[in-house]
Amino acid sequence: MTGIPDILLNNGRTIPQFGFGVFQIPPDETARAVTTALQSGYRHIDTAQMYRNEQEVGEAIRGSGVDRPGIFVTSKLDNASHRPDDARRAFDRTLGALGSDYVDLFLIHWPLPTRYDGDYVSTWRTLEEFYRDGRARSIGVSNFQPHHIRRLHEEAEVPPAANQIEVHPYLTQSEVRAFCGQHLIAVEAWSPLGRGRVLGDPTIDAIARRTGKSPAQVVLRWHIERGDIIFPKSVTSGRIRENIDIFDFELSGEDVEAITALDRGERTGPDPDTFDWIPA
Ligand code: NAD
Question: What is the pTM of this model?
Fold first, then answer.
């Protein structure tokens, strides 16, 4: 037992607060990494169409011996597939690649407000179809700013269950997190370790020494205490096990505040208001 809490979503379903991310894991390494994660107690996998490794995620799940309902799987819509018909075809391909007749959570990966005539609302309405027919148990968004979400609230019917955004000690995202909190949208913190950049920070290092945990464990625990959902990535077996070993300690309120105070508004990834990349 790992003691991973479940988070209640606004549609009554739950999501494990902790999981495994597979961004930038090459397809030929994905099945092994996901297998190690599942053997270590992870029960939530975060992939995306643009990661090109959904098939290998599916293989690892099927080979794991864990029943499909026991594993929470998220995928995300390709930036090239925002038009409704493209989104429908892309979603079919996701289910085929995963070898499953549903995903637990399906997200619009990026709002791409400067593409598709700024229309992410009809893309969202297409995700609503997947939600209504039960093939997406929950639907949400990723990299959406409050003003993007407000449009969905005004112009669509199903409110997003989650918003997956970049969050780590150097980008604490207080405004977007507060907005999501007010609107019952679960926050998923991507790049929870700032892709490793925050791990040499002296404040984090001092807390790690005092608590007898590693800097990565301290940062992951900070996210858990703040209530965000996380899925750190690693291909190294020792780190995969280290990252889930955070449910036997707590940080004091003071330590949580000290880490939150490290905020520099520093993104490791693109700005959602200007990002416009579409894969070839
Ligand atoms: P991360 O913050 O999880 O950092 C991963 C890197 O940190 C690893 O490559 C490794 O170098 C290092 N690391 C991991 N564990 C460590 C440990 N115990 N000790 C020392 N170093 C360690 O970054 P990420 O992969 O960008 O983010 C995690 C997941 O978030 C992704 O795999 C993906 O699922 C998701 N994500 C989503 C988006 C989005 O646009 N929605 C963007 C990026 C990432």
Answer: 0.98
